[in-house]
Amino acid sequence: MAKSDDGIRILQGLLVFGNVVIGMCGIALTAECIFFVSDPHGLYPLLEATENDDVYAAAWIGIFVGFALFALSILGIVGVIKSNRTLLLVYIILMLITYAFEMASCITAATHRDFLTPNLFLKQMLERYQKSEPDNNNDKWMTEGVTKTWDKLMLQNQCCGVRGPSDWQEYMSAFRITHNDADFPWPHNCCVMDARGSPVNLDGCKLGVPGYYNSNGCYDAISGPMNTHAWGVAWFGFAILCWTFCVLLGTMFYWSRTEY
Amino acid sequence: MCGCWVVLAFCCLGQLCAGKRHLPAVILSVFVVPLFVSLLFVLWFVLGANSPQLATNNPTLTTVALEKPFCTFDSSLCPNKSCIIYLYAMKELGDAISSQVTDNTSKPLDSTFHQTSGGQLGPYKAALFSVPDCASPPKLTDVGDVNKVSDVLKQYLFRVGDDVNCLYDPNFLGVCNPPLAPDTTYRFKYVLLDSTEGIVKDQTLWSDPIKTRRVKLPLKIDTWPGRRSGDMIVITSILSVLVFLLLAGFLASVSSAVIYPFQLISEALPELSQLVYAYSRVVYALCPRKSMRPDGFLN
C-alpha cells in the first residue's frame, strides 16, 4: 500500500509540475501573439492586400489559447491536489478542446508562411503601388495601405522593389501608367536621400549610377519579420503541445486510477 | 601611331613615282591618303556612340544614355573652335538609302522627331552640343563626390529620350529629344559640323543597334508557392499523431472507468458466494433441530 501511495504522490507531483509549466507557457504564448498581432514592422497592409493574412489569424487564436492554457493549468493543479474526479474530467475535456485549437493555429501559421513568396509581393506591388483609379472603397483602402507601406519600407530600409530596382523596369505597373519612364525609371524613394528627404542627385538616381540609388531589394526586410512571426507561433505552439500531450496522458492515467 | 608610318610610306612611294612623271598619282598619294588614314583612325577609335559603363540602368524603356564623342573627331578640322556636334537617331531599318544625314551639298538634315515619326522614316536630330574637350575629359572617379557628380554626368554622357514635354509644348524652339519607343532597336550617329559654314566636316558610322527594354505584364507573374516546406509537413504530421494518441488514451481511460467496477464485482463474486454458504451453514448449525409432523407443522 505504501509503495502505491508513493507512486501516487510522485505522479501527483509530476502532474502539478507539468501544469505549472503549461500555465507559464500559456502566458508566454499570449504575450508573444499579442506582440505579433500589434505588427511592429507595419507589414500587415501588404498581407491584407494579398488576402493571405492567415498568419495573423493564427496569432489571434494563439492569444486566446494561451490564456485558456493558463486558466486550465490552475484547474488542473487544483484537481490533482484534491484528487477530485469531476474536476479532472472537466480539465481533460477542456484541455482536449484547447489542444485542438492550438493545433489549428500551428498548422495555419506553418502552412500560410509558405504562401509568402517574392512573386506574391512583386505582383501586388506592381498592381497596387500608386494605383491611380481604384475600383471601389475596398480597393482604395488596400491601395493606400500598400503605397504607404512600400514608401515607408523603401525609405527605412534603403531598398527598392522586391528583388531590386529592375522590377520597375522589367514589368508594367500601375506606377508606370501615371509616371513616365524618362523621369521616373523607378520611384524616387529608391534614390539615396539626403537629410531633408529629397534625392541627393536625381540624374544619378535615374541613370543608375552606383551610390545614388538603392540597388538592393526589399524582400529580406519583408520576409525576415514574417518568418519570425510565423515560426514563433508555429514552433512555440508545437513545443507547448508536445509537453501538454505528456501531461494530459498522465492526467488521464491518474484520473482512471482515482476513486470517487 | 601606325597611321603616320603609312602616310610616310605612301609619300616615299609618291616621290619614287614622281620620278617617272606620274604627277596625278603623286597628288593622289599626298592628299587623299592622309584623309583616308584619318578616316581609318575614326573607324578604329570608335564605330559610333557607346553605352557608358557608369549608368547601370541603360537602356531603359524609353531612354538610352550615350557617351559623348571624346577625342573622336580631329580637332584640326575646326580651326576656329566653331564646330558643334549633332546627334542623329533613327530606328533600325533595312533601308540604307534613307539613313543619310546630309544632303547633296553636305549640309546636315534638319529633321525632327515628329517629322520622321520617331525615327521611322529616317534619322532625326536628337541633340546639339559643343565638342567635348579632348584634352581634359571629366574624371569618372569624381562621380562619388556629391558636388561634382552633376557636372561629370553632364559632360560625360547624353541621355536620348530625356525630355517628355517638348513634343507637346508649342513654344519649344530647341532640338526636341522626346522619349523613344519601348522594345525598339535604334542606331545613333554623331556628326561634326562647322557652325559658320554650316557644312558637315566629319561623321561617325551608325552605332551598333541598341534596343530599348520591353515590359512584361504583372498578370503573368506566377504566385504559386511551390511544394510544401518541411516545417509544415513535420508540424502537421506529428500533431495529428499526438491528437490521435490523446483521443485513444481518453477513450481507454473512460472505458476502463466504466468496466473496472464490473471487473471488481465479478472477481469478488466467487468469494462472496463462499462467504454466503459458510454463513448459512453456521446459522443452520446453531439453530435447534425440530422434527416435522406429516401435516408440516413443527412439534
Keywords:
heterodimer, A: 260 residues, mainly alpha, 10 helices, 0% strand, elongated, B: 299 residues, alpha+beta, five-stranded antiparallel β-sheet, two-stranded antiparallel sheet, 4 helices, 14% strand, rod-shaped, disordered N terminus, Uroplakin-3 (chain B)
Describe the structure.
The complex is a heterodimer of chains A (260) and B (299). Chain A is mostly helical and 260 residues long. Helix content of chain A is 72%, strand content 0%. Chain A has ten helices and no strands. Chain A is elongated and about 85 Å long. The model of chain A has no long low-confidence stretch (mean pLDDT 92). Chain B has 299 residues and is of the alpha+beta class. In chain B, 35% of the residues lie in helices and 14% in strands. Chain B is built from four helices and seven strands. In chain B, strands 2, 3, 5, 6 and 7 form a five-stranded antiparallel sheet that branches. The interface between A and B is large, with 58 and 55 residues.
Enumerate how many helices of chain B there are, as a single number. 4
Class based on secondary structure composition and strand pairing of chain A: mainly alpha
Shape of chain A: elongated
Which percent range fits the helix content of chain A? over 70%
> Which regions of chain B have little confidence, pLDDT < 50, spanning 5+ residues?
1-12, 16-20, 42-47
Rounded mean pLDDT of chain A is 92
Roughly what fraction of the amino acids of chain B lie in strands? 5-15%
The N- to C-terminal Cα distance of chain A equals: 19 Å
Q: Structural class per helix/strand content of chain B?
A: alpha+beta
Number of strands of chain B: 7
Radius of gyration of chain A, taken over Cα atoms and rounded to an integer in Å: 26 Å
Main beta-sheet annotation of chain A: none
**Quaternary:** heterodimer
Order of helices and strands of chain B: HHEEEHEEEEH
- Give the beta-strand count of chain A: 0
Organism (chain A): Strix occidentalis caurina (northern spotted owl)
Main location (chain A): membrane
Pfam families (chain A): Tetraspanin
GO cellular component, one term (chain A): membrane
